[in-house]
Design goal:
Elements (H helix, E strand, L loop, with lengths): L1 E6 L4 H13 L4 E5 L2 E4 L5 H13 L3 E3 L2 H19 L6 H12 L3 H12 L3 H19 L4 H7 L5 H12 L3 H6 L12
Antiparallel strand pairs: 1-3, 1-4, 2-3
Length: 188
């Protein structure tokens, strides 16, 4: 059995695309989730090269070094928490979830993430939260207060300050500005 760590898997459609790539290359998937595919066989260097090229052609990257794999797993877990889980929780809860999910001490994960990405986990979480807020603003189904509650901000003012600090616009200005929209999650 082989575990493959794949960069840029950030949504359910990415899972579908990677599943198709694996099927096209005749690999049997045991399980698949954001950033990770478990297959029945262990791949040799030639198979890894072919698979890496197929993934690359679709915008994915097969990771091989340990640090990159851990950072990618962190990113996938953060994206899952912020964009797909209903219970976001506090930053302490996020750090605990990351530590438990990866089975590694949070201080090590934090140092590694900063070393590899050049930004802190906390900053990455904020960037992801802002992208989720943009999405919710575009949908126009929730008020700023409801979005603040959903995204676990202490107040709508806190959300607005963080949003403006990141985008240069208030949430209201963002809603009325055409042409400014979301960033692809794998570009954050």
């Amino acid at each position: 059995m082989g575990i493959l760590i794949i960069k840029n898997m950030v949504c359910p459609r990415c899972i579908e695309a990677v599943t198709k790539i694996m099927d096209d290359n005749n690999f049997v998937i045991t399980s698949i989730k954001l950033g990770e595919v478990v297959i029945e066989e262990n791949l040799d260097e030639i198979q890894l090269g072919i698979l890496g090229e197929s993934l690359s052609n679709s915008g994915f990257e097969l990771l091989s070094d340990r640090k990159s794999k851990i950072v990618n797993q962190l990113k996938s877990e953060i994206i899952k928490m912020i964009h797909y889980d209903d219970d976001l929780g506090s930053s302490a809860k996020i750090s605990n979830r990351l530590s438990q999910s990866l089975g590694t001490d949070y201080s090590y994960l934090s140092k590694l993430f900063s070393e590899v990405e050049g930004l802190t986990i906390e900053r990455y979480v904020i960037l992801q939260k802002v992208e989720r807020i943009k999405e919710l603003l575009v949908y126009n189904e929730l008020s700023i207060s409801e979005i603040a509650y959903k995204m676990n901000y202490s107040s709508s003012q806190h959300l607005s300050r963080q949003f403006k600090g990141t985008t240069g616009l208030t949430p209201s200005e963002f809603k009325t500005t055409t042409g400014l929209r979301r960033i692809f999650l794998d570009n954050i």
